[in-house]
Known about the structure:
The active site is at residues 78, 165, 167. The chain is of the alpha/beta class and 507 residues long.
Amino acid sequence: xxxxxxxxxxxxxxxxxxxxxxxxxxxxxxxxxxxxxxxxxxxxxxxxxxxxxxxxxxxxxxxxxxxxxxxxxxxxxxxxxxxxxxxxxxxxxxxxxxxxxxxxxxxxxxxxxxxxxxxxxxxxxxxxxxxxxxxxxxxxxxxxxxxxxxxxxxxxxxxxxxxxxxxxxxxxxxxxxxxxxxxxxxxxxxxxxxxxxxxxxxxxxxxxxxxxxxxxxxxxxxxxxxxxxxxxxxxxxxxxxxxxxxxxxxxxxxxxxxxxxxxxxxxxxxxxxxxxxxxxxxxxxxxxxxxxxxxxxxxxxxxxxxxxxxxxxxxxxxxxxxxxxxxxxxxxxxxxxxxxxxxxxxxxxxxxxxxxxxxxxxxxxxxxxxxxxxxxxxxxxxxxxxxxxxxxxxxxxxxxxxxxxxxxxxxxxxxxxxxxxxxxxxxxxxxxxxxxxxxxxxxxxxxxxxxxxxxxxxxxxxxxxxxxxxxxxxxxxxxxxxxxxxxxxxxxxxxxxxxxxxxxxxx
Length: 507
Ligand code: XMP
C-alpha cells in the first residue's frame, strides 16, 4: 500500500483517487501519524499532500523528520515538497505573488519522475511559497519561470518533491509522473482492483460495528444503495433500511426499490407508504420553497417515527460521497434552492455514530463498487433524482391525480430515450407538469388540457448545464406517444434553456 500523509490539502482525496486509478491501494492518514506505526505498516511509498499553510507559520503542520530515515520512498507535493526541503536543510521563500494555474514547466532529463515524458510540459501550480534552495544531496529536476526548484530529488535516499500538483488533470503528464513514482520507484505492481475496495470496506465495517445495530434511509439512489449494501454484507440483519416512499417517485420506482433490496439482496427493509400523509401536508401549497421544506421535514418525521419503533440503534449509515464532503465545507454561497437529501440527518434519532463507507469515493467509483456488488445496471446508472421528487416537477399544488399524469408522461420519455441509446449521453432528462392548460383539437372535438414540458440536459457537474440536442424525430415520437397514451395531456413542449440562467429542475 501507499500512504498519503495529509497536511490539510484540498486535493488529498484526489491524490488517492489517482493512485487508485493506477490500481494501487492507498490509505490517507494525518501528518501526525506516528513514525513507528508507519514503519510497521509496510508501506511501499509515502506521498505528502499539499496544504494551505506556509512552513514558517506557527500552525504549520509538521511531521516527524524520522519519516525520511525509514528507507521508504517519499514524494512531496506542493506544501509537502516545501516541508521536505525545510526539514532537510533547504530554503523555502515567500514570493510576493501567488503562482496559480496552468504553468509551463521544464523537466530535466535526469529526473526519475520524468522518464519517458517530453521535456516541456504544462503543470498546475497553486502556491505562494517556493523552494528557493534545494537541500544538500538534492538535484534540481524541473524549473519554471517562478520556481528555481519546480521539482527536486535525492535518488540515493529515494526522496522526491514536486512544487506543482500531478494529481490535478490540468497537469498534462501528471498521471505518468505518479506512475513513475508508484511503479518504478516504489515497485508497486498495479494489480489492485475496485473489488478489493468492497472486500476491505466490508471487513472494516465488520471490525468496527461488530454486533451493533445500524439503520439507514434508502431511496434507491446509487449512493445510499451502495452504502447500505456494503453494510448489509458486513452485518446482515443488524442493518435495518427504512425506505420512506413519499409517493412522489417515478413510475413503479417504489416497487422496484423494494424488489431489488428485499427480494434480490434479502435485506431488512421497511417500506413506509406515506403518500397520503405527504399530500395532506402539501394541500393548497404552491410556493416552491415551501413545498421543498414541507417534503424535507415530513421525510425526517416519518423516518424518525419508524426509527423509534426499532428502538435503540448504534449507528446511522449514510451514502455521503467525497464531493459532498468537500461541498459542505463552503458556507457562503447563496441559497438558490434548499436541497433535501434523502438520508439527511434526523435530529430526533438516538444513535452514537455514523457509518459512511463511501466518504472517500467519487461518483464513478461508487458506480463501479455498485456493479461489483451486483446492484442492477439501471439502479447503478440511475440519473440524479431530487429528494422532493416529482413534488417539484409539478408546478402549483401537488395532487395524486397530477402525480399519476406526470408519472406516465415521464415514463414514456425515459423509455424512448433509453430505446434511442441516449440514456447515458444525456445526463438528466425528465418531464414536468407545467400547470398550464391550453386549447387543442382531437378528432373533431375541442380539448382544454395539460401541457407537459420535457427537459434534457448535458452537464459534467450539474452546476452548469446545456439543454440536450435531442433529435427532432425522437421528440416527435415522445410527443405523440404522450398525447395518445396519457389522458389529460394535449400539448408537449421542449425546454431549450441552459443553466444558468435557468436551473435544471423547474422548482
Ligand atoms: P438545479 O435544479 O438546482 O439542480 O439546477 C441541480 C441538480 O440537483 C438536483 N436536485 C436535488 N438533489 N435534493 C437532491 O438530492 C434536492 O432537493 C434537489 N433539488 C435539485 C437536480 O435534480 C439536479 O440534478
